[in-house]
Known about the structure:
The protein is an alpha/beta fold. It has one domain.
Amino acid sequence: MAAAGAGRVRVRRVYEAPSADDGVRVLVDRLWPRGLSKADAHVDEWPKDLTPSTELRRWYHSDAGDYDEFVRRYEAELAAEPAADALAGLRALVRDHPQVTLLTAAKDPDVSHTSVLARLLSG
């Protein structure tokens, strides 16, 4: 649950049809989703600096990737520039809007960087 005075944050797959109650739609993937036009995505913001580095993403999707270790490494990336500035911008967006929807192409958002962002923004 979001802090008092702050907007609500939820996570959806970008391939789901936009909903009237999505609020501000923020794509939090580094790469544009395959097969989806920008017009159909209805994305309001796309802060690429907030996404996991290419190296981290590749490591996580390799056989060596462990989710708990991924979370640790991703949080370390978020603490450094330019991601820290992008995270501060997203926090301001959440504070200033009643609803923010984080969009991802990940097949399982619960074990992706999106869940990490949602936790950090809601806490």
